[in-house]
Every structure is written in structure tokens, then in C-alpha cells.
Amino acid sequence: MNKMNKATKRRLIITGIVCLVLWVASYFIGYYVVADLSLDIQTGDISLASFTDIMNATALYVTPVLFVLQLIFTVIYTVCCYAKAKKLYASWDGEDEDTVEKSESLISGCIAVLSVAQIISMLFFGVIVYATYDKFMSEFVFWAFMLLAVLFIGEALYITFMQRCAVQLTKKINPEKQGEVLDIKFAKDWEASMDEAQKAITFECGYRAYKVCIYTCMVLWLVCLFGIYFGMGIMPMLMVSVVWLTTTLTYIVKSYNMEHRKGRK
Questions:
Q1: Among 148, 149, 79, residue whose Cα is nearest residue 113
Q2: Which of 88, 94, 112, 189 could pair covalently with 179 via S-S, beta carbons 3.0-4.6 A apart?
């Protein structure tokens, strides 16, 4: 017990020293470097505003291309995966486990790509809105934005449709599965139809995602802290803190309720 206490104290001391060093370093970087940052490249000084203009131009012209490319990839990949999975299921004789495992693997890959594509699509569209919100005086930019908005909505509908198709095929392979994608209680019904092994996998993955989210929030908080010196303002830090606090409180409350529920039993 004493050894554990000594180890804990040592870790706390190291953590405190690291935090202090980082705080001092951020102060000097912010005050002496970032606040007075300017570069002289041939034509003259390039300020932070110039870098912002470059980023805006990149977002305006590059992001729409990336958005369309990810949309094309998502549609082609998921349609191929679903078609192949459906074909394998149709040829399944009810006994060959390899065939059904390959079909389920393709379905999982399809759903995974759809989930990631949904987030990337929202990110790209948000960047496009940011890059074009004050440029609607240009007719070309306006109609390009309207086209991208239609594609964004179309992709959202496509993702919902394909997720439903994938879930329906999974329910055919595993009749015990329950839930309708378009139902608000889908996640609850789907979890209730899992066996113990599937629940254990889901819970382990959820805990791993929780830990990764906490570490990610820590890194993003530091990025937002330095971003204040670049004119980002306090809103990004507020958003990160909200996500961080919500995730942590959800875990604490749920674990507390489960522990006390076991105690009552």
C-alpha cells in the first residue's frame, strides 16, 4: 500500500511539473512568438491574416472536390459490399459458416464506411459553409454551394437508406435480431436482441471509444488554447469542454447507477 502511495505521489509530482512547464512554455510562445509573428517572403511581410486568407482559399476550392470524391467513393464501395454480401447470402445453403461469415464481414464493412462517411461529409460541408458564407455575391459560388447542399442532403438520405438495407440483410442472416433503423428506439431494440458475447464486444469497444475520446479532448483542448493566440476565440474550447464534460459525466452517472443497482440486488 505504501509503495502504491509513493508511486501515486511520484506520478502526481511529475504530472504537476509537466503541466507547469507546458503552461510556462505556452505563455512565452503566445506572448513572444505568436503575438508578433510575421514572415518576410520576397514581396514583404506575411501576417496571420494572410495565412487565414490562404486557408480560406484552400477551403473554398479544395474542400468541394474532396467532398465529391468521398461521396463517389462511399457510393461505389458500399454498393459493391452490399451487393456482394447479398449474393453470398443468396448462395448460402444454411450450413457453410464461412459463407455467412464473409457476408456478415462485408455488411460490417459497409456500415463502417457509411458511419465514417457521414461524419466526413458533415465536416466537409461545414468547411464549405464557412468558406462561402460571405461570398454569395458571386453567382457561380452561390449555385456551386446550392449544388453541394443538394449533394449533402442526398448523401445523408443515401447513408440512411443503405444502413437500413444492411441492417435488414443482417436480420435475415440472424433472425433473432430486432430493430428498425428508422425507429428512434432502434439502438435499444438492437442491443436487447444481442447475445452475451455480442454485448461483451460492444461494451468493450464502447469503453475503448470512451478512453480515446477523453485523450482526444485533452489534445484538442491544448490546440484550442494555443488557437486563442491565432484569433480562434473561446468558442472552440467551449465546444471541446462540453463534449469532454458530457462524456465524463455520462460514464460517471452510468457506472454509479449500475454499481448501486447491483448493491440493491
A1: 79
A2: 189
Nearest to 222 by CA among 211, 209, 236: 236
Give kind and range of the element (H or E) at residue 115: helix 97-132
Cβ–Cβ under 8 Å, residues 78 and 109: no
Q: Residue 41 is which amino acid?
A: I
Task: Tell me, yes or no, whether 53 and 179 share the same domain.
Answer: yes
Number of compact structural domains in the chain: 3
Domain of residue 231, residue span: 194-265
The answer to whether 216 and 241 are in contact (CB under 8 A) is no
| Together in a domain, 30 and 70 | no
pLDDT tens digits, 2-60: 444 565 566 566 656 766 666 666 555 544 444 444 444 344 444 445 555 666 666 66
Backbone angles phi, psi at 177, to 5 degrees: -70, 140
Of the candidates 247, 251, 249, 253, the residue with the CA atom closest to the CA atom of residue 216: 247
